[in-house]
Amino acid sequence: MRISNEKKSAAREKLLITASKLFFEKGFHAVGVDTIVAESGITKMTMYNHFPSKDHLIVAILERSNELYWEWFENTIHGLTEPEKQLIAIFEAVAHQRSLSPQSTFCLYQAVAVEYPDPEHIVNKAAVDHKQSILKRLEYICQQDGLKSPGPLARQLFVILEGFCISSRFIGADSPAADIVHAAVTMIKSERK
């Protein structure tokens, strides 16, 4: 019984990795179940044992990405007790990621929102939940910092992060990574006046 569960876990993992790669390269609607199973070497029946549909597979990818994102977030602010330093560290880390690779700022959730615009669709809901959680966390940090308008500032900081991610795809290597840090610092400091 244990071996069977390990095989299932290995098959599920292989499907998640393969589908993620294919969706990144070609988009969500362009990749069908037949392509995913062919590329992964996993049978269609096994795939459906793990995921009732392609949409459920996408949601599982988004959930995994959410876990990785929050792990990155917590590591980024770890050891920083001052909320302002936490906010700045987030922007510095995003800017640094961009310097490592243009693909590092690819936002899976933005891509999903474009291909699944229906707010009632399970894939769209998973993307919205993730983005709302970021916004809430930014607002919490702004509140902890005692800033004048934590809600509006959190939304502005969120828009800068989102805009940077999408603009990096269009501008490429010349994307102004340092500008997002400067913009964030300027906005945070203005809330102290």
Low-confidence stretches: 1-7
Question: How many strand segments?
Answer: 0
Q: Mind summarizing the main beta sheet?
A: none
Query: What is the CATH third-level topology name of the largest domain?
Result: Tetracycline Repressor, domain 2
Task: State the CATH class of the largest domain.
Answer: Mainly Alpha
- CATH architecture term of the largest domain: Orthogonal Bundle
> Helix fraction?
over 70%
Whole-number tally of structural domains = 2
**Which band does the percent of strand residues land in?**
under 5%
Order of helices and strands: HHHHHHHHH
Radius of gyration: 19 Å
C-alpha geometry: elongated
DNA-binding region: 32-51
Pfam families: TetR_N (PF00440)
InterPro entries: Homeodomain-like_sf (IPR009057), HTH_TetR (IPR001647), Tet_transcr_reg_TetR-rel_C_sf (IPR036271)
Protein name: TetR/AcrR family transcriptional regulator
What does this structure look like?
With 193 residues, the protein is mostly helical. The protein folds into two domains: 1-51, Arc Repressor Mutant, subunit A, CATH 1.10.10.60; 60-190, Tetracycline Repressor, domain 2, CATH 1.10.357. 77% of the residues lie in helices and 0% in strands. The protein has nine helices and no strands. α5 (83-100) packs across α7, α5 (83-100) packs antiparallel against α9 and α6 (108-115) crosses α7. Mean pLDDT is 88; it is low at 1-7.
Per-chain topology:
Blueprint: H1 2-26, H2 33-40, H3 44-50, H4 54-77, H5 83-100, H6 108-115, H7 122-144, H8 150-171, H9 177-190
Helix pairs in contact: 1-2, 1-4, 4-7, 5-7, 5-9, 6-7, 7-8, 8-9
